[in-house]
Amino acid sequence: MDRKKALIVGSGLGGLATALRLSRRGYEVEIVEMYRQAGGRLNQLTSEGFTFDMAPTFFSMSYHFREFVNDAGIEMPFRFVELDPLYYVNFRGSDRRYIIYKNLDRLSEQFEGIEPGFRERMERFLASAGDLFNDIESGVLSRNFRSLPDFLFQMTKLPVKHVPKILRSVWSEMGRYFSSYEVRVIFSLVSFFLGATPYDTPAVYSLLSYTEMVHDGYHNVEGGMYRIVEGLVREAEKAGIRIHYNVKITGFEADGRRNRAFIDDQGKRWEADFFVVNADAAMFRGRIFRRKAFSDDKLDRMQWTLAPFTMYLGVKGEVQNIHHHNYFLGADDYESYSRGIFRNRVSLDKPYYYVNANAKFNRQSAPEGCENLFILVPVPDLRFKPDWSDRERIADAVIRDLSARTGHDIEANLMTRILLDPVNWQNMFGLYRGSGLGLGHKMTQVGGFRPSNKDEIFSNVWYTGASTVPGTGLPMVIISSKLTVQRIDDEINSI
Question: Which domains are seen in the chain, by residue range?
């Protein structure tokens, strides 16, 4: 009997993981990718001897990766180590750096004098977040939902004590445990990992503090994050999985409730028995399948995550006063900045930004005596800021600010400089309006409210990745591949 063939659209982490899981189950697998190399946003840039992680710079919940390699029947194709300290935080106008350790004794020392009883407060906060995490991970994050009613039914099984966290924001949750401005800001930064702000992110996501501080921490990959992709591509090659690059899907050919083929921008048909889409699950339904429920007008009314304005700087000399992960924040305008940034109502002359100095850990990523700095500035998506002709000016302002706050003249020591604005991200990876992480994670856009991993029309089309369940982040994408393959296992024989 001939093997059933799967075609996967997109070679991001979700696409690669799904491909390997399916191959292990005996399916013939082929992948098409619009970019020049695999990885999606988990990618890399090289220039003048510098190597940059393009977007993700760490991951958590490492046990999901271990479960994945076991399911795919492969050895772990990359090496990783736990990070401690986790990150540094600096507020504009202050020389002080807060160093965020997992160790509560060392962490508590950072907040002496500004948060009385910090250790006890943090222990209570983490206990509550951990309790929530344990209930959510098994009951929601790691489950498929056949329908919205199914999701709502599962939510009713959660302990009633968690309900307030659904109704209030992360910022409100911080205020229940901490009094100091600095502490509330620092431990609400987890919202930005979701491409949102603590004022519009449900307090449910305070569970991320538990994952970083207690549960599994942050992990860095030896050699850089792209080693994950390189390792999975090698395993795909071993399994006979073919990957075709520079292939942009623009159409489809269907017969009733079955999709027969996808069609690329050169007119080539890509046939298969079934299909898995690792592109944005909402945008693909609208732009490729022409579904009215996912038209641009309707998508524009949804909540999308902040867009990335990213800078990749090769710098001569060792930059002091930074760690592997760093947050550079404003002085005392956190709320106004957070509430205004989405809709382009604040100036980007003095933005909040994140800096990854990968050579602090992976020395080979920069020439001897140099640093490679990846800077991420969360900015409005293209609905609210379509014109990026000012990107050089914004980049110059960030460089001046970082130079002042580190004491290193970055502009005078620049060896390479690459800028990617939301237009670039949209065009390179098919990100809707340049949104960095796809649909936001408000309660009406998660679980059963999120675009399903099973197509509502075609019986042989599924979705995987950050844009479907359970959501964004590398471990969530690994879980997504598992959930998608579970549905395929359950349903493929009925097609």
Answer: 5-42+59-77+224-302+439-494 (3.50.50.60), 106-214 (1.10.405)
Q: Which two tokens stand for residue 490?
A: 């359950």
Contact 467, 285 (CB under 8 A): no
Tokens of 66: 């271990």
Q: 0.90 exceeded by the pTM?
A: yes
Q: Which residue has the tokens 């493929």?
A: 492
CA distance 468 to 376: 24
Neighbours of 290 (CB within 10 A): 11
Burial of 415 (0-12, 13-18, 19+ CB in 10 A): middle
Calculate the CA 451 to chain-centre distance.
17
Digit-coded pLDDT (tens) for 457-492: 999 999 999 999 999 999 999 999 999 999 999 998
pLDDT in tens, 94-116: 999 999 999 999 999 999 899 99
Looking at this protein, which amino acid is placed at residue 37?
Answer: Q
* Residues 165, 132: Cα–Cα separation, whole Å: 9
Token representation of residue 419 = 């800028």
User: Which DSSP category does 304 fall into?
Assistant: B
d(CA 294, CA 55): 27
Residue carrying the six token digits 């959930």: 483
Burial of 211 (0-12, 13-18, 19+ CB in 10 A): buried
Q: β-strands 50-53, 44-47: how paired?
A: antiparallel
Structure tokens at 386: 């379509």
Instruction: Tell me whether the omega of the peptide bond preceding residue 470 falls within 30 degrees of 0, making it cis.
Output: yes
Residue with tokens 């489809």: 252
DSSP 163: H
CA distance 425 to 175: 35
* Separation CA 31–CA 243 (nearest Å): 5
Q: 329 Cβ partners below 8 Å, 6+ apart?
A: 89, 90, 91, 92, 185, 352
Residue 323 backbone dihedrals phi, psi, to 5 degrees:
-115, -165
